Structure formats: C-alpha cells, structure tokens
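Quick start: what a row looks like.
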Amino acid sequence: MEIERIPRDEGAASSSESGSDDPYLLVTVDSHVGPSLERQLRPYCPQRYLADFDEFVRRERLDKTDEASAMLERRKALFTRSELAEQALLQASECPGLQDPEIRRQHMDADGIAADVIFAGGLNNEPLPFIGFGANAGSTAVPLELRAVGARIWNAWLADFVSVDPWRHVGVMQIPIHDVSLAVQEIERSRSAGLAAVNLPAPRSDFPSFADPVYEPLWNICEELELPLVTHGGAGEQPVGVNGPAGDLFFSVENHFLSRRGLWHLIFGGVFERHPGLRFVLCEQRSHWVPETLRDLDSLWLSRARDYSPPVLPRLPSEYWRDNCFVGASFMARFEFEMRDQVGLPNLLWGSDYPHPEGTWPYTELALRGTFAGAPTDEVRQVVGMNAVKVFNLDERKLTSLANKIGPRPSAVDVPLSDSELPDYPGQAFRALGAYA
C-alpha cells in the first residue's frame, strides 16, 4: 500500500520533522461492553421486577426475537462469508474485556489507549434487559415502565464497572426517552454514581421529535451537568425491508443515516441556540458524509423559496455544527482524515470500536499508521485524543501521564503501512473507498 504524505497547512510538521515524539494520548469514543444478563445484570434488578426480568431472559434465550438478537444475527450473516471473518467475529464475541474490567484495561494498555467511552452492545448475545440493543430506545412491544427499569439496571452495573478507574472510562448512561421527567431523574442519579455521558436514541416515530418543547428539561440538565449527548450508529428505526431479501444490505446502507437524524432535529429545533453549552456526539458514524450534509442544511437555511430563515434560527446550521457537534469516526480511514478541514478538525474524534471485528483492536497501531502516517503530529494529537478530552471533560494531566507509558509515539505512527503488514482480517480502518471498503 503506497502512501503519500498527507497535505498539511504551511508550517505544520510531521513528528519526524518537528522533533516532538511524546506519545499520543489515545481516547476511543466508541467501545463496548456486554454484561451477562443472568450473572451480572440480574443482581441489579429491583426485587419487584425479578419475575419480569427472568421472563425477558427466557424469551431472549429461547425465542431470540428481540432487536439485539436480530442485530447479532445480521452481523453473523455478514461475517460468515469467509473463515477469517468468522474468526474475527468469534474473537470479538468471546472477548473477556466485554465483562471483566481488569482484562479490558490490559487490552487498552496493549493497544496504547488511555481512555474509552463505553456503550452497550458487545456482539456476545447479551442484550440490555427490557431494552435489547443498547444504543436504541427499546421495542415498543415492551412496556415503558420495564424499559425504564432496564435503563436503571444498566446504569447501576456500568457505574460499578467504571468505578475502579473512572478517569479512564466514560460510562454512557441509558435514559427512558419516552418519559422526560423519569429521564431527568435517571440522569441525576447516574451522574452522581459516576456516569458521564447520555445515550440519546435517534429519532423514532414512537416519541416526539427533538424539536418538541417537551425535551427542554432534558436539555437543561445535560447542559447544567456538562454531560455530552451521544448517539451511536444503529440507534434508530429499522430500514424498510430489513427482514426480507437483501435485508442485510439495506441495514448496512441505512442504519448510519437513520442514526444521524437527530442532528438536524436538534439544529432546526433551535436546541443549540437555546442551549449553547450542549455537546452532541455522533459515534461510529464515519465522517465523510458531514461536509455534504452541512452544505444541504445550510442550503435549506439560505433558501429564498421558503421561509427557513431567522428569527427561527439566527445562525447557519454549519455554525451550530462547529460549536456544538462532533463525529466519532470509528476506525477512521485515511481518506476521512484527509477531509478533516471540511468536517472541522476540532469536531473530529477517533474510535476503536473495541472489540468489534470491524474495529481496530488488537491492531490499533497498524490502523493508526494506515490512517495517519505522514500527517501533522499536532493535528493527529487533536483527533486521536485531545478533542475527546475536551468534549468528555477528561483529566488531561492523569491521562497524559498514562499515555507517556503506554501510548504509541508519533515516530512509530509516521511509518507508512505496507500490504504485507495488513492483518489477516483487516478492520474497516484500512478501507479506501467509502463507508465499508
């Protein structure tokens, strides 16, 4: 794989030219856990809901009809086209770091990662109780009361999981989005317990648009507590035809788009105008789509054909993106980093997607070389860690001290990757065409 130097602004220098070889501070804004329903989550279930919990487990184990199981089956279908792909999926699904915090930190150290943002969804057939796939809002077939209980169970377990090294882990709390007052209570409780980001399910037809005033208490508390709102890929409505012929491909094409819809809801709903301190992060979303989307949103705002203009929204949508929004370009490809100025360098975050097979683990340094070799060191520092430190209010001093021990040095990353060094089953950080290849 022949790699050219990445263009940079005049005066910027790569590590070999600048002489700065302090290790990179890596923060992945996309990683996963998969606690065991029976062994790890059941002890957190309130006594009065234990019968419901056990019935959920029974259906999950026997029927496998919930959304998390359906998503796992789609993943399996996509990863059974080659023996190497199957092995990669098996490695991810059996990764002990999904459930054991000590092993997880060992994997982070070996990969040079100082801190991680933790979502549910481990590909190990362990859904969240009453919710299923952790990035979403749960099935409408499950009563809202039980989905709220499932959020509380997850939040309590995750708070304990991250408590050993809370400065290294950003736990993403679940909220009952259908009941804003309950959601606010859960946010206050979970923040006190140590969780530091809020999972915002993508818009769906079964709850109001984020432009609706009903959400004002939610935006207020997140701004007050400085909690980023995060939406993970796959966190939206299901594509039409997903359960029919070519459904796996429909899912792959549309699941990212359906998860992005909160962006224009929040912008055109005036949420960032009323709450300038809010931060909104779209995780595992790639990043190549951002420039065209911002052009389309600005075009709507500027249109003379219809009244999309102030006083409803006094600034261009792209200005709200600049000040309030971020994209976690998990397993960032080289061509995505080359678009950093169009996306916004301060708005671009990196993710490993640990331990998913499409992610960078356990080949993170190879992935970094494939993406960043020849790039300006200062800009790489921003993208792989320092932007996330600011967005998620991390302790830069502590993380820098750790990164100096485990982080990859710029001189090592600044070495072009050869084809012979590619992993047997390369993750999507090594893609060159688009979102998938």
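That is the whole record. The first helix runs from residue 15 to 18. The chain has one domain: 15-430.
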